[in-house]
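Structure (tokenized):
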């Protein structure tokens, strides 16, 4: 009986840890949506400068091949936004295209791949080459692109993709201030779900821990006289010794 109650209390403790994790996740989404959400519903990252002395900046491969559009429309999953403002004079070009086409376009062209983009660090993998690229706006493989303001929005699609940022005139020395955004209708649902499930598990954990670790009144009553008798015996021994 005592073992069963102990296990109930321990299981309640485990559920309490899960509830804390869910509540922390839901709280983080509440904070992000309150502080990083734009007027058009995108969660926007901090703005970071990315630059290269070569002809182009590219993203790592965006592997979206596992998406199943027959289950859920892809624009229900996410819309991504890229905002790139040039720090110099040349207007900027931003485009997203199939990975194979981008690779062919930049073959033997010196460019830098952004391997990490965060508030604390931006890292690159540099690719050497001596070819001069053709004008990016003259290519027909982009699924979305923009020249000048450098701002694009794209409903993600299945496939392997790369993002490319260049000077619009295809000259070297690319430097832009970049922020990334994402919007999905499931985000608010996820936030509410995390908070509701977290609160429910927390309540269940509290009940399980209460009944699992609660000391019955009868047992407490038995303990009290035994403690009192032990104290009394100790006092008597002290008087005898005196």
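Design, position by position:
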């Amino acid at each position: 009986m005592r073992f069963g109650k102990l296990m109930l209390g321990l299981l309640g403790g485990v559920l309490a840890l899960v509830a804390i994790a869910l509540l922390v996740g839901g709280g983080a989404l509440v904070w992000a949506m309150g502080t990083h959400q734009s007027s058009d519903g995108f969660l926007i990252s901090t703005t970071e400068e990315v630059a290269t002395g070569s002809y182009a900046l590219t993203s790592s491969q965006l592997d979206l091949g596992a998406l199943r559009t027959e289950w859920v429309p892809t624009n229900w999953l996410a819309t991504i936004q890229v905002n790139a403002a040039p720090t110099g004079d040349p207007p900027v070009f931003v485009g997203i295209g199939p990975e194979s086409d981008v690779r062919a376009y930049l073959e033997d062209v010196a460019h830098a791949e952004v391997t990490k983009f965060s508030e604390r660090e931006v890292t690159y993998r540099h690719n050497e080459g001596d070819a001069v690229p053709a004008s990016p706006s003259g290519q027909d493989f982009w699924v979305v692109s923009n020249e000048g303001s450098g701002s694009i929005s794209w409903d993600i699609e299945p496939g392997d993709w790369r993002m490319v940022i260049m000077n619009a005139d295809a000259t070297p020395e690319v430097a832009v201030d970049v922020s990334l955004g994402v919007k999905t209708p499931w985000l608010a649902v996820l936030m509410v779900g995390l908070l509701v499930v977290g609160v429910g598990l927390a309540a269940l954990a509290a009940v399980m821990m209460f009944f699992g670790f609660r000391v019955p009144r009868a047992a407490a009553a038995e303990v009290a006289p035994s403690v009192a008798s032990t104290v009394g015996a100790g006092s008597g021994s002290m008087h005898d010794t005196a």
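Reviewer-requested clarification: Helices lie at 2-35, 74-77, 99-105, 186-213, 217-241. DSSP finds five helices and twelve strands in the chain.
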